[in-house]
Amino acid sequence: GENVEQHPSTLSVQEGDSAVIKCTYSDSASNYFPWYKQELGKRPQLIIDIRSNVGEKKDQRIAVTLNKTAKHFSLHITETQPEDSAVYFCAASTSGTYKYIFGTGTRLKVLA
Amino acid sequence: DTEVTQTPKHLVMGMTNKKSLKCEQHMGHRAMYWYKQKAKKPPELMFVYSYEKLSINESVPSRFSPECPNSSLLNLHLHALQPEDSALYLCASSRQGFTEAFFGQGTRLTVV
User: Fold this and answer.
1) How many angstroms separate the CA atoms of A50 and A73, rounded?
2) Cα(B30)–Cα(B24) distance, rounded to whole angstroms?
3) Which of A39, B48, B86, B92 is least enclosed by beta carbons within 10 angstroms?
């Protein structure tokens, strides 16, 4: 079945450094890739997404890159801040379906 | 209004009880979802309603019974649950299946 692998499971960085989280998906028909941030005890919230017709997307300190050939996409956070500390989930979805296949999550800790 | 509202926020129920979780959105989204999330795990899809019709049931036990009374409301009826069903239950909605899913704040369910 479809699955999304996510690495690393935990990531600690110093404040101001960059963080990179990587995901690999199995279904080549997947064409929508959102990233969600979930703070402790709160709901998942979309931070950025990308569609398969685009290779890269940026929003201030956050960027996502997509390599369709390798079925691989990554989240890049620059100039990390303590408030970036949370669990980040990648996901993959396919038009015509209503399934979001989530990765296993990355716990990011930004050390002040 | 970009809110998905869930009630109650917390629920403790016995194994013989019947209770319902409620979810409401007024964004005009035609897809609504129930997810179950255990601690330190990604959201796990349970049900999807598309245009008020059940389109996906991820082999969920019959003690969980979803209902979509109209395009804005989604219920999850609970009966004879087990302690292992204790989790955070998240409702979400999206415009289509491969667009941003907005999550509610969840109902933290404890089965005793």
Assistant:
1) 9
2) 12
3) A39
Task: Please return the burial class of B80, using the count of CB atoms within 10 Å of its CB with bins 0-12, 13-18 and 19+.
Answer: middle
For residue A87, the chain B residues in CB contact (below 8 A) are 40
Of B31, B90, B96, the CB nearest to A43: B90
Model pLDDT for residues A17-66, shown as the tens digit of each residue:
999 999 999 999 999 999 999 999 899 999 999 999 889 999 999 999 99
Establish how many alpha carbons lie within 13 A of residue A101's alpha carbon, considering only the half-sphere containing its beta carbon: 21
First to last CA, chain B: 36
For A98, the 3-state DSSP assignment is coil
- CA-to-CA separations, B23 to A40, A93, A96, in angstroms, rounded: 21, 23, 24
Q: Exposure of A80 by Cβ count < 10 A (0-12 exposed, 13-18 middle, 19+ buried)?
A: buried
DSSP letter at B96 equals: S
- A45 vs B contacts (CB less than 8 Å): 103
pLDDT single digits (tens) B55-105: 988 899 999 999 999 999 999 999 999 999 999 999 999 997 778 899 999
